[in-house]
Automatic annotation (TrEMBL):
<dbReference type="GO" id="GO:0008977">
    <property type="term" value="F:prephenate dehydrogenase (NAD+) activity"/>
</dbReference>
<dbReference type="InterPro" id="IPR046825">
    <property type="entry name" value="PDH_C"/>
</dbReference>
<dbReference type="GO" id="GO:0070403">
    <property type="term" value="F:NAD+ binding"/>
</dbReference>
<dbReference type="InterPro" id="IPR050812">
    <property type="entry name" value="Preph/Arog_dehydrog"/>
</dbReference>
<feature type="domain" description="Prephenate/arogenate dehydrogenase">
    <location>
        <begin position="4"/>
        <end position="285"/>
    </location>
</feature>
<protein>
    <submittedName>
        <fullName>Prephenate dehydrogenase</fullName>
        <ecNumber>1.3.1.12</ecNumber>
    </submittedName>
</protein>
<dbReference type="GO" id="GO:0004665">
    <property type="term" value="F:prephenate dehydrogenase (NADP+) activity"/>
</dbReference>
<dbReference type="Pfam" id="PF20463">
    <property type="entry name" value="PDH_C"/>
</dbReference>
<keyword id="KW-0560">Oxidoreductase</keyword>
<dbReference type="InterPro" id="IPR003099">
    <property type="entry name" value="Prephen_DH"/>
</dbReference>
<dbReference type="InterPro" id="IPR008927">
    <property type="entry name" value="6-PGluconate_DH-like_C_sf"/>
</dbReference>
<dbReference type="InterPro" id="IPR036291">
    <property type="entry name" value="NAD(P)-bd_dom_sf"/>
</dbReference>
<dbReference type="GO" id="GO:0006571">
    <property type="term" value="P:tyrosine biosynthetic process"/>
</dbReference>
Length: 293
């Protein structure tokens, strides 16, 4: 694999730092571009402090000789920065999006530069965790093309790659991210209005409750922007949220009607939909609960 210069916009963030480490490990040269003045990480041998949304006239020189430009930025910022980047690079430079919602950035790129090379990379795990064996979504115009050089970087890190188009990605994220996060947040909103003492609840909480508390606490410990973007920036997230509300109403109606048969039928439908995944996820749950018990 040839050594390439890769410029990472938002390189001091969690995703930017992760990708910088992966590119560097493969022999590429990572240039970190960020507006932060604190906490510059030691693995960035090339760091440039630039206000991406208000760059100086000569700031585009950082892209000289770059093979790829990584947008490790929130969706709105990435789209705003796109015209400046495109004005400073050639039409053969690879654009890499790490947005949690890919379609809006992809559409903006195609409207401005229809032929610009594009690939999306969305790690489906916290960047603070080891990347080995972790899933990563790779977003492409055409998922039937041969392996991309950036995919080889991810593969060398022993990550599990799943290819999809921008629209497929956002639809999958609506179910994999927006739906579970919404369910956890609803749990938190109900808990916040409960008159019961949380310390008492936590003391007697069985493993399912402790698991939900752990998921809720993880969200509350992380930046709000991460979870806001998952819900707000993805227009496809509205559908599973509405489905969640409908399912709550459906469950409430079944229980209030005392219809155990319909309750069982619904559980059977869910089990049938899960198929082989039922046993896999049941084993995952047993592993989690054995840790908590």
């Amino acid at each position: 694999m040839s050594n390439h210069k890769v410029v990472i916009l938002g390189g001091q963030g969690a995703i930017g730092s992760l990708l910088s480490r992966l590119f560097t490990r493969c022999g590429h040269i990572a240039y970190s571009v960020d507006n932060r003045t604190q906490g510059v990480r030691s693995h960035h041998s090339h760091y440039y402090q630039i206000d991406i949304l208000n760059p100086a006239a000569d700031a585009g020189e950082v892209f000289s000789g770059a093979k790829a430009i990584v947008f490790a930025l929130p969706e709105a910022v990435a789209i705003q920065a796109l015209p400046w980047v495109l004005s400073a690079i050639g039409d053969d430079v690879q654009i890499v999006s790490t947005c949690s919602v890919q379609a809006p950035f992809y559409s903006a790129l195609r409207a401005a530069a229809p032929g610009q090379p594009f690939i999306g990379v969305n790690p489906m795990f916290s960047p603070s965790l080891p990347e080995q064996k972790r899933p990563v979504a790779v977003i492409l115009d055409n998922c039937h093309v041969s392996k991309h050089w950036i995919e080889r970087v991810l593969a060398q890190a022993d990550m599990r790659i799943s290819r999809m188009t921008p629209e497929e990605h956002d639809r999958v994220m609506a179910l994999c991210q927006a739906l579970p996060h919404a369910a956890i947040l609803i749990f938190g909103l109900v808990l916040a209005k409960s008159p019961l003492d949380i310390r008492t609840l936590a003391t007697i909480a069985p493993p399912p409750m402790r698991t939900m508390l752990a998921l809720l606490s993880r969200i509350l410990r992380n930046p709000i922007e991460v979870y806001w973007d998952v819900q707000y920036e993805n227009p496809m997230a509205a559908e599973p949220r509405q489905a969640l509300l409908h399912a709550i109403q459906q469950l409430n109606s079944i229980v209030q009607a005392g219809d155990q048969t319909e309750f069982g039928n619904n559980l059977g439908d869910i089990a049938q939909q899960l198929g082989e995944q039922l046993d896999i996820s049941a084993a995952d749950c047993q592993h989690i609960f054995s840790t908590l018990e």
